[in-house]
Write a structure and sequence with these properties.
The complex is a heterodimer.
Chain A (H helix, E strand, L loop, with lengths): L1 H19 L4 H22 L21 H31 L4 H4 L6
Chain B lengths: L6 H14 L5 H29 L2 E4 L10 E4 L1 H24 L2 H24 L3 H20 L4 H32 L4 H11 L3 H18 L7 H5 L4 H26 L7 H22 L3 H22 L2 H32 L10 H4 L1 H15 L6 H14 L3 H26 L18 H16 L1 H16 L1 H9 L4
Antiparallel strand pairs in B: 1-2
Helix pairs in contact in B: 1-2, 1-4, 2-3, 2-4, 3-4, 3-10, 3-13, 3-18, 3-19, 4-5, 4-10, 5-6, 5-10, 6-8, 7-20, 8-10, 10-12, 10-13, 11-12, 11-17, 12-13, 12-17, 13-15, 13-16, 13-18, 13-19, 15-17, 15-18, 16-17
The chains are: A mainly alpha, B mainly alpha.
């Protein structure tokens, strides 16, 4: 199960890096969103994956999954959500002001 | 009583939330935020004293004892940095009160600064690696907002670069955390340190440590500083001063903490790598500092040089060099804020940031000129100013450990710092006065007071080194003997 998830993480990361390296700002943002999904899956699988088990419910439970990675992912999701929202607004404002969504055209000169 | 430990992070957050409701009252916001920073400084003085008398202490949130819960840990190193950053922020805020436009002041500038400080102080105090990530993000999100406030084209352009590079570096941070959790099964710093010491630093752990090195280097501007000059020279000057004084320092703090507490078993790999990166940073920063004509860019490259210099101390890792780095870190927070504030005042006066457009400012503004002169000497490391003691200790340690390449580069970089600022001093303050005093835009009343306060602080740190010595020695001792830190955090349980 872990190996399968790790391969999935690899695929997601590949897709994300392809998107991040493109010149269109919206594609870069989509890339960063996928990037964060990849790392969330990675954290999840680092805690060990057990089919059909839940986080610890009582002291007598026979099998349970590590609850810590889930807490970590929850925090990381909230943060990446906020950052993605911010950069989307930033890209929109930049598009309004600079009139382009192409990162090469955005370079501009230092004299402005 | 150690509940006080949470206040350096909690107080700015609570006050920041409060200030959001006072949006239209710029001056009121400024005074409240300055007051809260002064209270934070007072608390950190008390904490520092307490660490000195009772040793390292901690605060377990929710009563969950380590290694199970999140905790804040106060040792001399972190509390010294909290203290310095609070004082520097209070002074920068008073500069903002006097100099920035009303528009900026009423657009959530002060709440963002306070949230930034909450993140910075939290990063210094936390004893948990994932919590460090969260505090980093709090700090970064506020810095994104501060960087874009003002909405000029240049700011938006630089902000896109800055935000994207930081998203990628946060991603690396999460990857490193995931692998570390997979390898040692804990994220509490002291517990990680203990387990790494138990199993030995295997190649896998060394690789993980290098991922951490990449993450923190991106934040600190160690070798991976290519985003730094652009984004530090585009926002309003107060923001640049805060960024220059605080943001890179958090990365440096994280590097010191992880590579002295956790990953110190393989110095021939990790510390050598840090040494090489520091050397390249010194070279790159020095070249940048003399290559540009824009005084803000020159100031930004001076930040890069300082990062390289401080990390030379970590690369050598002897008691003297670590002490030197801590002195220099504290000095640099004060001196870089001062440098940026002075540069900002010069730009306001002459209406341009190019050296060619300024000349003979000395005649009309002698006080500004001499403040700049003192800053320059302080950054170059002339006694009795604050930069001196750090440079002496690091150079001495480099000689003792035989790292002559690092020694040569560190000293050469000081000459480049002196040259780059001397060039600014000569071109902008001396020479023919182009405009008469009547034509020059008047200096706002009181705008030099914050700068003078920082000048006094840099002289004070230089002259009062003796008084700081016990705290800095204690901080260095804790960094070099991880056992003290681990005992203080996990001691009660085992």
């Amino acid at each position: 199960m872990e190996s399968l998830i790790i391969i999935l993480v690899g695929v997601l990361t590949t897709v994300a890096i392809y998107l991040v390296l493109s010149k269109n700002i919206v594609r870069v943002i989509l890339g960063t969103a996928i990037l964060s999904h990849a790392v969330h899956l990675l954290i999840l699988s680092m805690g060990g994956l057990k089919l059909g088990a839940v986080p610890l419910l009582g002291e007598e439970a026979e099998t349970y999954v590590d609850a810590l990675p889930q807490a970590l992912i929850l925090t990381a999701i909230v943060i990446s959500f906020a950052v993605t929202a911010f950069i989307l607004v930033l890209a929109y404002r930049a598009h309004q002001e600079l009139g382009t969504d192409n990162l090469s055209a955005m370079r501009g000169s230092d004299d402005e | 009583m150690n509940n006080l430990l949470v206040l350096p992070m909690l107080l700015p957050i609570v006050v920041g939330v409060l200030l959001i409701f006072l949006r239209t009252y710029g001056r009121v916001q400024a005074w409240i935020s300055i007051a809260s920073m002064l209270v934070t400084s007072g608390i950190s003085v008390y904490l520092l004293h307490k660490v000195q008398t009772d040793g390292i202490f901690r605060l377990d949130f929710g009563g969950w004892e380590p290694p199970f819960g999140i905790l804040f840990v106060a040792d001399s190193f972190s509390v010294l940095l909290v203290l310095t950053s609070s004082i520097v922020t209070a002074i920068c805020l008073s500069y903002a009160l006097i100099s920035t436009s009303k528009e900026l002041q009423t657009m959530y500038f002060y709440p963002s600064v306070l949230f930034l400080i909450a993140g910075v102080n939290g990063s210094f105090l936390t004893g948990d690696l994932f919590n460090l990530f969260v505090c980093f993000e709090v700090m970064l999100l506020s810095s994104y907002v501060l960087l874009t406030l003002g909405n000029s084209k240049r700011q938006l352009r630089e902000a896109i670069k800055y935000v994207s590079i930081n998203i990628v570096s946060s991603w690396f941070f999460l990857v490193a955390l995931a692998f570390l959790y997979g390898a040692v099964g804990t994220l509490n710093m002291a517990h990680v340190a203990e387990r790494v010491a138990e199993v030995g630093q295997t190649p896998l752990l060394t690789t993980i440590s290098i991922v951490f090195l990449i993450v923190f280097s991106l934040k600190a501007g160690l070798l991976l500083y290519f985003w730094l000059p652009g984004s530090y020279s585009s926002p309003p000057i107060v923001t640049s001063a805060l960024f220059g004084a605080l943001l890179t320092k958090v990365g440096i703090y994280a590097l010191f903490r992880t590579f002295s507490l956790i990953f110190y078993h393989q110095p021939e790999t990790t510390h050598l790598l840090i040494g090489i990166m520091a050397a390249l940073t010194l070279i790159g920063g020095s070249l940048g500092a003399i290559a540009f004509n824009d005084i803000r860019t020159i100031a930004a490259y001076n930040v890069v040089i300082a990062v390289g210099f401080i990390l030379v101390g970590l690369a050598i890792s002897t008691p003297a060099s670590i002490e030197g780095s801590i002195y220099y870190l504290i000095h640099d927070m004060v001196a870089k804020a001062l440098l940026f504030l002075l540069v900002g005042t010069m730009i306001t006066l002459s209406g341009t940031s190019k050296m060619a457009g300024m000349s003979g400012l000395m005649k009309n503004y002698p006080l500004l000129g001499w403040s700049f002169f003192v800053t320059m000497l302080s950054l170059a490391g002339i006694p009795p100013l604050s930069g001196f003691i750090g440079k002496v200790l690091i150079s001495g340690a480099a000689i003792d450990s035989g790292s002559y390449v690092l020694l040569a580069l560190a000293l050469l970089s000081s000459i480049f710092v002196l040259y780059s600022l001397l060039r600014v001093f000569k071109n902008c303050f001396w020479g023919e006065t182009i405009v008469s005093k009547e034509e020059q835009p008047p200096l706002r009343k009181g705008v030099l007071w914050p700068c003078l306060a920082l000048v006094l602080l840099t002289i004070g740190i230089g002259l009062g080194t003796e008084g700081m010595a016990p705290y800095v020695t204690d901080a260095a001792e804790t960094l070099l003997n991880p056992g003290i830190y681990i005992d203080a955090v996990l001691g009660l349980i085992q």
